[in-house]
């Protein structure tokens, strides 16, 4: 059992980027598929139980969803700020400068 834990730990440490959020959506999805495939391999070969497999899949998918939501909210928020600055702020600056 200790060997299996080390194998899983080594896999996650050796493959995990320093900051998962810097990956784009396609890279995160590819990473998710790779991890789930690895867990499936471990389960199929009896290295982890069905219950452990289910927990790992649930946890991994939760992390993926968290990053997806974060990336989408961040992107939408940044776009709203850009839109605001380009419309309202630029109009106000133009009016202010035209009075001077």
Compute the number of helices: 3
Mean pLDDT: 81
Question: Uncertain regions: pLDDT < 50 for 5+ in a row?
Answer: none
Rg, alpha carbons:
22 Å
> What is the terminal-to-terminal distance?
77 Å
Overall geometric form: rod-shaped
* Major sheet details: none
Instruction: Work out the strand percent.
Output: under 5%
What count of domains describes the coordinates?
A: 1
Helical content class: over 70%
Mind explaining what this structure looks like?
- By secondary structure, this protein is an all-alpha fold.
- It has one domain (23-99).
- The protein is built from three helices and no strands.
- The chain has helices spanning 2-15, 25-44, 50-99.
- α2 (25-44) runs antiparallel to α3 (50-99).
- The protein is rod-shaped, with a radius of gyration of 22 Å.
- The model has no long low-confidence stretch (mean pLDDT 81).
